[in-house]
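Try it yourself: sequence plus zinc ion, in.
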Amino acid sequence: MSPIDEIKERIDIVELISQQVELRRTGRSYMGFCPFHPNSRTPAFVVYPDTQSFYCFGCHAAGTVFDYVMRQQGLDFPEALRVLAERAGIELRPPTEDEEQQDQQRTRLLEINSLTARYFNYIALQHPRGQPGRDYLAQRGLNSDTIEAFQLGYSLNETAHLLTYLTTKKGYDPADLLAAGVIGQHETRGAYDRFRGRVMFPIRNAKGQVVGFGGRALGDAQPKYLNTPQTMLFDKSHTLYGLDRARDAIRQQDACIIVEGYVDVLTAHQHGFRNVVAPLGTALTSGHVALIRKLSHNVYLALDADAAGQRATLRGLAALQRSTDADTAPQTVVAEGGLVHWSNDLNLRIIQMPAGSDPDDLIRTNPEQWQALLEHALPVMDFYIQYHTAGLNLREAQDRRTALERLLPLLADLDSMQQRVYVAGLEDVLGMRAELLLDLIQEHRRTQRKASQRPARRAHPPRLLGINGPQVHGQTARRSPKPRRSHRCVRPPPAYCRRR
Ligand SMILES: [Zn+2]
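Structure, out:
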């Protein structure tokens, strides 16, 4: 990536300008008083996060972050480049020819995505055959402000409607359309529109640029959700739906809520819960966590009440472990058997959804209850205690023993302060005195330590959580050559963690 690209990647125009100009959000853009011409009555200065540009309707000043800095500080381009490179922490060297070409392609792909989002949105709003899309959006209770703010759309059920529009009307090269992922290429039948007969959700990066799409099938078409494939711009493990709109609220409220689907995000925002984002049909990854941690360390997971949802929660937690790779601070780690490493800087809470409802339903029908659930979200350790004691009859000695076996590894991994807090709470649950529990924890630690001193018999580290073991294991093993602490605690996954 060229330094110019890198600067564009790292410096957000809204953030940069709002340090000097008071900006207010209006729809998809921000407005304020122009710093380049005297004015104090009508804000005429607009900043567009989508295109990372600004424009003044008064004096017609316009451009990118570079233009802004050049004008604002009276610099020429190389000087502005130096200023911004320093701000972004980038060392300058002349771009290679390759990098310049990449930069140009990147710009073209952004244009294609932006144009495609407008095209899908137009079809959903105005095209006579966009009715199925309009019906779906109405049926989900999404209003016109939400449809505009998120630029929701619809793709016609035709082989090459978008393809024709972008090539013959707009003059784009099919190769670029393929690289942007908006069309596919069939071996014999040639190029075709990737998204057909689907409700379209443009996916934006944190800066508000469209980098890909999610398409939801109507009726029984498969797959139900189709995403843009991995492209130069789109990597779903580093993208969160709604983050561009949620960013300010996450910062202001110092909390980020993670839900599962596009419509959950849309409904939340429509009802004023603006710090809500969703991963794109995947478990949380370290890339997602890295995005959130820049904004807040308070993370809430709102996932389904059913067993599959709980397993997804655990999968999400397992993913948080991998965010340690980027940072040295200890994080929540979930390993086989529910072993938890405590996080010192990420406060993770679990929002427990009532059986049979998801955030979308609940926010629409009962926003007060949603608010109450947020307030009563469980710290992750409490969630684990509930999870590991569910279905056990703790008046029975055998069940108490089972609970203890499941909980000891979790407790052993907490620091002594946290241990005391949880042990005090567990006295009643397990019918066991705190001193005895603390002794057992110590005992467990000693056993673990001894086990770790013995030469390892396994060629591979154990799987993390039976539910998605091989995948997690593969990634962990690749990224961290030395075995993690959690790998010491090896037991077969309990039955409730296994895939059914
Ligand atoms: Zn102006």
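One thing you can check immediately is this: The two ends are 44 Å apart (CA to CA).
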